[in-house]
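It is worth pausing here to work through a concrete case rather than discussing structure prediction in the abstract. The textbook approach is simple: state the sequence, then state the predicted structure, then interpret. We follow exactly that order.
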Amino acid sequence: MNRPRDRFRPADYPPERLVACLGVIADSHVSERLSALPPALFEALRGVDQILHAGDLSECWVLDHLGRIAPVKAVQGNDETGAAQNLPTQKHFSIAGRCILLIHGHYPDRAEEIASRLDDRWAPKLAYRAELGHHAGASVVIFGHIHIPLAVEYDGLLLINPGAIAAASGATRQRRQTVALLYVRDDGAVAPVHLDLADLTRPHAPQIDWSVGYHVAHDAYHASILTPELAVDFAFLRKQPWWNSPEEGRPLWAAWYRAARRCWSGEFPVLTRAIVLATVRADAAIPPSALAHLERALSVPRG
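Step two, the predicted structure:
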């Protein structure tokens, strides 16, 4: 059969020694940032033996759709809604003698998570996921959260991120929607292969310079949707206590994402102050205090 799992199977993983081909996905963010799973995803994962979702589904019906391809294991991310918030935070399982840990990979503590995002070094990001793997007794850690595809040996473990399907934030668009296939051989050897959903004729080989920092790799997979003025505003907003509070920040984020979807759909080339304010003002669910905070914040010249 002309399936991706067959086309991209490594030569030293012959069918008679292949225990499983696992489909790996993360950060679908449906329907907050993506209205539906892309059709190419179903082709990319056609014929896999099991699907692993490394969190940030947003809504549990994603699992029903993926389940039409193969049985699904999934964990909770940091941006779940509804029943998805009841998913476990991690799953560990064994296949061909290899213990695999499936996590989203964020810091449970909000302050630690924010600090990690400000740190541009790769080493702490990899070390944190490796530490979780060691604690679970795993030799392979599959995680999401960072929206960058990678496969790297670190501190004796294999760390795998499939990349993402949806944008990393309300400030960017995903340049490449990627997933991974994980081939498992009967001797416990594993081989990850990344796929770009825009081109399933060849594997996608992530090119990461580990010496130059996280944000260089991030920028290779994400493009800003903000005007320069709004980009400065966005950095300011994310530091405000009211923006990060459930009462005021959550409805503002929901409105912001509605505005961002108009850029992701191609209706607008970029997001502006005027588009954000018009979207928020039209939302009766926004608390008056939150609207007042945002209007004041977006009335100040920055640059």
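Step three, interpretation. Residues 40 and 126 are 29 Å apart (CA to CA). DSSP finds ten helices and 13 strands in the chain.
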